[in-house]
Write a structure and sequence with these properties.
Structural class of chain B: mainly alpha
Number of helices of chain A: 12
Largest sheet of chain B: none
Largest interface: A-B, 20 and 33 residues
Radius of gyration of chain B: 20 Å
Order of helices and strands of chain A: HHHHHHHHHHHHEE
Radius of gyration of chain A: 30 Å
Order of helices and strands of chain B: HHHHHHHHHH
Number of helices of chain B: 10
Strand order of the largest sheet of chain A: 1-2
Structural class of chain A: mainly alpha
Shape of chain B: globular
Strand content of chain A: under 5%
Largest sheet of chain A: 2 strands, antiparallel
Oligomer: heterodimer
Distance between the termini of chain B: 27 Å
Distance between the termini of chain A: 102 Å
Helix content of chain A: 55-70%
Strand content of chain B: under 5%
Shape of chain A: elongated
Chain lengths: 273, 269
């Protein structure tokens, strides 16, 4: 039998190989599509400083890649153990060390770390973002929210929100929310002083200034009630049980007008509004 | 200076005719094309991602030119002794060194102009209609400055590779030494900060002093890296830019002078 020439052999072999390639890749793709894309993050668990050295002048793009990897891993949908979340927190630290200005990083941090039990870590990283992005109000807002919602530290929450409300473009709600939390933590006078300063902010429109004005009026009423309650305590040796005690005792003639058309109350030793 | 110009032109043409040059250019164009896909994987700061990819591609291409094309161009002359044909004419060795450097610098400049333009276009296209996701302070001046200082940094590394090519007998050794210098140059500033901050190691004054001494010998390449400033439109201090420019030019001059001295004394046979 005459043996085939090399050229003929190749011409026969190439279509066979192409068919094999197409057929096998079809099956490979089917199998890969049915499993979770990201079962792990392919990034070494190095200290932040070592990552910075390894990245050299490419810190920005390495941070981009890292954030993409983290996002893909989280979105893969597979169950995340505590170890997985610890690892995610470390990688967020790495990304923040490489590029502390990247908004995508701190947004993902806020989206995932507090709810996975890493609120302190989230706050640590958000502080870095806040320092590097003095024009961006979101990091400070997220910090304030975490202190309020997760850590129940109203004093710190109000400090963050009030500081952040000074940033150009920050919504007025940060100032009003910050003042409410300041009052909750016993700093009513500070909250009033801050709001009076913010009332003069040229970035606020008339609507916002009016909102602040009504909040100031409300808090001034709160301050009056707090001071009256202190006088009652000193005079009678025990705290008030309701605000009517202040009227009955003659310390106040009537309750102050609520600036926001609500009612003042008294619960758990604090004036409410 | 006529000899220097001629040598520079010959070096440039030799590089331009090299197949590696065109291959690298093609790969870099593909990389910047990928910019358009990768950028849209992000929800925030798309502009910064686009700038990162564009400027990084430009930097990588510049480094590849130096470490592969540049070292080859110089070492080939020395290994194959074709340098005799050049030095046989009334050309001083310092003119040879300067001509080679300027030729390579011209290759890098042309590459950066082309890639910089492609990179800028890819940033514009990637962020089309996404004005909200471009950092508010981004400016093309910052982007251009980043490219200019990238070019300065690459010239500095080129001067180092020329020095090592002349100092060593093997192109491989020249490449290793150049890579090591590049790595040290990128990280020496960070290393000093880490040593002084006690986060990595217990504070040791001797280590800190040694690192500081090294920072005077090795180039501080991090000083030329303006990618983050370009990506976010961070303000660039003109005084800092001027001093960095002077530093880059002076250091490059010192290296070229040293290379000329060593080459003058080198036995070529």
């Amino acid at each position: 039998m005459r043996s085939l020439s090399a050229k003929t052999t190749l011409m026969l072999l190439v279509p066979v190989l192409l068919a094999l390639h197409g057929f096998s890749y079809y099956h490979v793709r089917q199998i890969r599509n049915s499993i979770h894309y990201k079962a792990s993050i392919n990034v070494p668990m190095l200290p932040e400083s070592v990552m910075e050295m390894a990245a050299g002048e490419f810190k920005g793009i390495v941070a981009d890649f890292l954030v993409m990897e983290i996002g893909a891993f989280i979105d893969a949908g597979s169950h995340k153990s505590d170890t997985d979340w610890d690892r995610i927190a470390l990688h967020f630290s790495q990304a923040m060390a490489l590029d502390p200005y990247f908004a995508q990083t701190y947004r993902l941090i806020q989206a995932y770390l507090p709810s996975s039990g890493h609120v302190e870590k989230a706050n640590e990283l958000l502080e870095i973002a806040r320092r590097h992005l003095p024009w961006d109000w979101y990091p400070g807002f997220f910090l304030g929210f975490n202190y309020f919602n997760d850590l129940k530290d109203y004093a710190k929450a109000s400090e963050c929100l009030l500081e952040t409300s000074k940033i150009k473009g920050a919504p007025v709600i940060l100032a009003t929310l910050g003042s409410r939390l300041a009052q909750k933590s016993g700093q009513t006078l500070t909250a009033i002083g801050f709001l009076k300063t913010m009332q003069g902010n040229p970035d606020y429109d008339e609507e916002a200034k009016k909102l602040i004005g009504t909040r100031i009026q409300t808090l001034e009423g709160v301050l009056l009630l707090e001071r009256a309650a202190e006088v009652y305590q000193q005079r009678f040796g025990h705290p008030i049980t309701t605000l009517e005690d202040l009227i009955r005792s003659g310390i106040l003639k009537k309750l102050p007008v609520h600036g926001e058309m609500g009612t003042y109350g008294y619960a758990d030793g604090k004036i409410t509004y | 200076m006529k000899h220097v110009r001629v040598l520079a032109a010959i070096t440039f043409l030799e590089g331009a005719r090299n197949r590696i040059f065109y291959g690298l250019l093609t790969v870099s164009l593909l990389l910047i094309g990928a910019n358009l896909v990768i950028t849209h994987s992000f929800s925030y700061d798309l502009g910064k991602v686009a700038v990162d990819i564009g400027l990084s591609a430009t930097a990588i291409f510049g480094l590849i030119i130096i470490f592969f094309l540049g070292i080859n161009l110089i070492s080939k002359d020395l290994d194959k002794l074709t340098v005799y044909m050049v030095l046989g004419r009334p050309i001083a060795r310092w003119q040879y060194v300067l001509g080679k450097f300027l030729g390579l610098s011209l290759i890098i400049l042309v590459s950066m102009l082309i890639l910089g333009a492609i990179s800028a276009s890819s940033v514009v296209v990637a962020t089309l209609g996404k004005g909200r996701h471009v950092p508010v302070n981004f400016s093309w001046n910052g982007f251009t400055m980043a490219l200019v200082y990238q070019y300065l940094s690459l010239n500095l590394i080129t001067a180092f590779t020329l020095l090592f090519a002349v100092l060593t007998t093997s192109s491989f050794m020249a490449m290793i030494l150049s890579l090591a210098t590049y790595f040290i140059g990128q990280n020496i500033e960070l290393l000093i900060k880490l040593l002084a901050s006690t986060k990595l190691l217990a504070q040791n004054e001797q280590y800190i002093a040694a690192a500081r001494a090294l920072s005077w010998i090795f180039p501080n390449l991090a000083a030329f890296d303006l990618k983050t400033a370009a990506a976010y439109g961070l303000p660039l201090d003109p005084v800092y830019l001027v001093w960095t420019l002077v530093y880059g030019l002076a250091y490059t001059g010192v290296l070229l002078a040293l290379t000329s001295i060593i080459f003058n004394r080198r036995e070529l046979a």
